[in-house]
Specification:
59% helix, 3 helices, 69 residues
Length: 69
Amino acid sequence: MSALSNTCTETYETSPARSSAFRNLVSAVMREIRLRRAMREVAALDDAALHDIGLGSGGIEDAVRHGRC
């Protein structure tokens, strides 16, 4: 009779490029989440508050993503 082994001898390694790409993807998704949250917060301001900081309702996304120059 032969004995069956329950141990796995295969190893799975991820390449540095693959883990770096995954890390970059996660970072980009997290950045987008933060930006959208910030846009919702600014969009919740009334028109007078937006005017006080020099924004119109149409310029919120641009201001949040790129800042004001």
